[in-house]
Write a structure and sequence with these properties.
Blueprint lengths: L10 E9 L4 H14 L5 E6 L2 E6 L8 E4 L6 H13 L11 E9 L2 E9 L5 H20 L11 H12 L2 H13 L29 H14 L3 H17 L8 E3 L16 E3 L1
Parallel strand pairs: 4-5
Antiparallel strand pairs: 1-6, 2-3, 5-6, 7-8
Helix pairs in contact: 1-3, 6-7
């Protein structure tokens, strides 16, 4: 983010379609409770003496955007347009909340809940933990039941686990493995001869595969004992290799790495990228 302060590229979000009536006031109360329970959402970031610091911040001074769009000619399109504008706005990590919420009524009994967060605070799995907790808290409040404990672990437990790993023999063994595995790594191929800052957005093209193509893709994946998405990754690497003329293409793939870790129940950012 420091490379391009006005870039919204690290905004990540989803919207959840709720079929049925929603009590808006109760839903907002559920949002406020879960935000207060999620340590990673009550933070700001500041740079002092060239070092980046994460500091605890007040997570109560915010308002969700609530709108009844049913009078609009195209309620769903209006909701999507609002989300697109929100996603395109860069977040000031020093002064603003790292998150945002909106609740749209897009039909007589249809609501869309949109929640956005800067990737520095939560990864996709962390976002899903928050979404599940909001659903549980709202359900309990509507039923008049206690909301119970969130079940979330602490950010400190994640830091402690990471610190222990960084000072362990396992860390040295892992480091030696990766250093040896990619000692002969090729130069990074590129589809251009120029260089630039990371893009602020992306291009998307959606293609529907014919049933026969899907069948072939799944059959090949079964033959290789991998998932169909692994086959698509291999196709992507092959395409980059052909277009760039590189002898080999190494893709950087995001991995979760939460299994067997305390972070499995902590909404936070622990995503890694591996070759």
């Amino acid at each position: 983010q420091q490379l391009d302060l006005d870039s919204p590229a690290f905004n990540t979000a989803e919207y959840v379609c709720v079929a049925g009536p929603v009590d808006t006031e109760v839903f907002v109360a559920a949002l406020r409770q879960v935000v207060a329970e999620t340590e990673a959402l009550g933070v700001r970031f500041t740079v002092q003496d060239g070092k980046l610091w994460q500091v605890t911040a007040d997570a109560t001074d915010w308002q969700p955007h609530v709108a009844d769009l049913t009078p609009e000619a195209a309620p769903r399109a209006a909701a999507l347009a609002w989300m697109a504008r929100d996603m395109a706005r860069p977040v000031d990590l020093e002064r603003e909340p790292v998150f945002g919420h909106a609740l749209f009524r897009v039909g007589p009994e249809e609501y869309w809940w949109y929640h956005r967060v800067h990737h520095i605070a939560l990864d996709g799995f962390g976002l899903s933990l928050v979404a599940r907790r909001v659903a549980d808290v709202y359900t309990a409040l509507v039923a008049g039941r206690p909301t119970g404990d969130s079940g979330f672990g602490t950010l400190q437990s994640v830091r402690d686990e990471e610190h222990a790993y960084q000072n362990s023999a396992r860390r040295d063994k892992d480091g030696a493995y990766w250093a040896a595995r990619y000692a002969d790594r090729p130069p990074v191929p590129s589809l251009t001869d120029d260089s630039a800052l990371p893009a602020r957005t992306f291009r998307r093209q959606i293609t529907d595969l014919a049933p026969a193509e899907v069948t072939t893709l799944r059959q090949r994946a079964d033959e290789l004992s991998v998932t169909w998405s692994d086959v698509l990754l291999a196709i992507t690497a092959r395409y980059i290799q052909q277009v760039s003329g590189a002898p080999e293409a190494v893709l950087s793939v995001p991995v979760m790495g939460r299994l067997g870790s305390v972070s499995l129940r902590v909404p936070c950012m622990v995503r890694n990228v591996l070759p």
